[in-house]
Write a structure and sequence with these properties.
By secondary structure, the protein is α+β, with helices and mostly antiparallel strands. The protein has five helices and three strands, in the order H-H-H-E-H-E-E-H. It is about 55% helix and about 10% strand. A hairpin with a 2-residue loop joins strand 2 and strand 3. The chain starts with a helix and ends with a helix.
């Protein structure tokens, strides 16, 4: 349970975790921008943090659509927040990019 999870986290190097998440966030940000998405997150990676915010007229509907693909996001006003974590990998970035593209093509 929680003790095992906390033990695992205690063994991780914080800079390795930060670099991993920053790389995934940069990849997601770049790919969504290249796909024509309106990104509200700062373009400067040093200011962006571990998430990407996509502008959308109905972020709840987009979040619901992605949820059917087991992609958990957070709608916030006119933004959809996509957070990446240590356990995320490039296949998660692929899934988000494909999911948003499919949603837009409906």
């Amino acid at each position: 349970g929680a003790v095992a999870g906390l033990s695992l986290l205690a063994e991780l190097d914080a800079s390795t975790v930060r670099d991993h998440i920053a790389g995934l966030t940069a990849s997601l940000d770049a790919r969504l921008r290249a796909a024509g998405e309106r990104i509200a997150s700062p373009a400067d990676a040093a200011r962006r943090g571990p998430q990407v915010a996509v502008s959308d007229e109905d972020p709840v509907a987009l979040a619901d659509f992605l949820g059917t693909r087991r992609i958990i996001t957070s709608p916030r006003t006119d933004l959809l927040r996509i957070a990446l974590h240590y356990y995320s990998d490039e296949s998660d970035v692929d899934a988000v990019v494909a999911g948003i593209a499919d949603y837009r093509s409906r």
